[in-house]
């Protein structure tokens, strides 16, 4: 008698025969390992197959087939979910990366992009058209996943978060129907991503920008405690005095093969270079600068800077806290745990400045962070297997130390893309929008076909789960 896995494998064989024009690979295929690879290299999941739609109609066909044959599926683009949720054992992977077009409108005010486009290709295509949009800094991140769950990045102050760029979307629902998202569905997509259907296309805002001032400065970190305290308290002082919207400052304390580094990303996204260099001078005084490569260049070239400091893979144990301010109490905790960071390449700690979203954006989204804040990223992500347990312990203790600081300084919501299973609930993440999100989930996925979608696949709805209201509807 066939077990469920064998039955699914046989069913996938039928799919390949029935739809030969839709690329599909199985575990025995020579290209399977490369297509399965994600940022998380220790994820043991073995999908029953990886299917690669070429357009929205292919996605529709795949979803209908999966529903008819009761095959669970997961959707991936960049494959960078830090909890391994872009690949699920014994499920079908719908790999969106071949749907990667970018069409800039003649007005150069918006662009239509494919649901599988990666950030690097998007930036390249937009740059060729003389425009830009809000994006992250890592070229292998999937843009749809990055933007729909929030989308922090160097343009957040100037253009807004990733979710604030979304003007429209085409979605394949649980029935396999291709829909143009209405205002209600768009509100859910802006913050809850692909929870309600597979996003095969988005329309996003673009802006007339081709050159920026950017670079990753290195500071002397030989005295760890003094470096952390001086830099972070100085950063908070500049923030209190008023950050211009064009400015991005994003510090990363990272262990490399050469020891601990303080790498601080500086970016000025405006044509007024004089003002940009004045702010560069201020930021340079946050510590002893060892290396300053800030220059006027393209966004695409600026993104290439991160290839030297961001590893292409890792063994991930990440977490996050969002704070209202870098208080002396908080910076003391940071200094303590940066000093204790296990000496394995890949471990790190980053700070992202999150501006307050516009009132319109908050009204038309479910994004949980409704005020100006700092999103802290705790990276217990050693590239060496040897350092995994020590790094995990450090990350857990660091998180505990931060959460023991003044609770009035801590936002109740967390950033979904960095929030691990069991840490919080959807009720806390979405706050006042929680009931709306759950109602939208019931409306657009009544059969729980998208049960493997982030964040419903691993974050409980409330502290006391209800099978009608819980993470699996």
Automatic annotation (TrEMBL):
Signal peptide: none
UniProt entry tagged with the keyword Oxidoreductase: yes
Pfam families linked: FAD_binding_4
Keywords: FAD, Flavoprotein, Oxidoreductase
Domain FAD-binding PCMH-type span(s) in chain numbering: 43-209
Family note: Belongs to the oxygen-dependent FAD-linked oxidoreductase family.
Protein name as catalogued: FAD-binding PCMH-type domain-containing protein
Origin species: Paecilomyces lecythidis
